# Entry
Amino acid sequence: MSSSGNKSAVAGAESLEADCRNARLHANENLLGASGLALHLCMSMPSLLSEYPEVTYKSLRTAIGERWNVDPERVVVGAGSDELIDISLRSLLQAGSRIVALQHSFKMYKIRSELLGADYSEIFPASGEGYDTTLNIALQKNPDVVVLVNPSNPLGDYLSPSALLKLVAAIPERTTVIIDEAYAEFAPDRENSPGVQIVNARKNSICLRTFSKAYGIAGLRLGWAYASADLVPVLQARRAPYNVSSFSALAGEYALWDADHLEKTATHCLVWGQEIVSLFQGYGVQARSRYVNFVFVEFNSPHACKSLHDYLAREGFLTSPLTDYGLDNCLRISIGSQVQMTRLCDVLRKELDAVERQKGPRDVDALNHSHRLPTTLSEN
Ligand SMILES: Cc1ncc(COP(=O)(O)O)c(C=O)c1O
# Structure
């Protein structure tokens, strides 16, 4: 091999190494990166750094209105949907208010509700019949807010538009419904999102969307709320005048029209999500990934989960344990780049094969094998 050939082989190996060193598979970011179109256009505009944004964000709201067929007057922008969750809950809850969410909903809802002194509770599917029964029981307490995260994080569950609309139809109009669609762009109905349909049809409703997931600009912190007309001024009043930077607003506006990037991201996550799910299932471990950019993995025990988490960390893959959600035996693994996912599959197979060899097939609990566990760990 020539010396230049040698160099490029080394560079290739180094970039592969870099891609897999502390691979960020713990935060549901877009590891294919941001829309190149958005980045390219924004980088050529230095005034974005020196000038305050236009205070009403009319241009971004108009672009969102055109792209998603919503009324721009009813769009409120925020520094990520995290800020819009915060603004919405501060607008709707106070000490003693009641808020109900689906089981294991994205943790910001519980954290923010409890800070406000509200009573936060969750509903769960009753013996395979969906949420209808437990929602009806929760509604007897007259909640102020019901939150429906769909597709959901961290469970990766997905309610079809008809199932979601049926749930919302049961909720009285005085209760505000928040539909969190952070992962909507990964769902098959993304061009006609049920969240937007609900806000168009119902008073007291808010649909939350983000640029952090499919669009890959989590670092720029940009999200938007589409709210029923009566709620728009209430939300706007709690937003700081320049809550979104000029750079973020314009990058979002451009990213909206980068259909190739969106399509590539959604397909990549679908394909790799299925690949990782079948890999785990092949070893008898439960896993799912439907219309999100991560895989939810459920082990037989907290030890098995922690053992695989620690092993992956040693191999350079950061993943997200779900102990904060009370899911001690579950792990969330975000979909990474092609290189990261290819190596992740190899690394997973190596470990799961070793477990099978040691303890026999299908004994996933064998991931607890002692040489990998810190001595302080005990089963709980
Ligand atoms: C369901 C859900 N909603 C909202 C958010 C917040 O996203 P961001 O603040 O980056 O828009 C996340 C982030 O993981 C999420 O999973």
Summary: Residues 28, 80-82, 106, 149, 153, 180, 182, 210, 212, 218, 223 surround pyridoxal-5'-phosphate (CB under 6 Å).
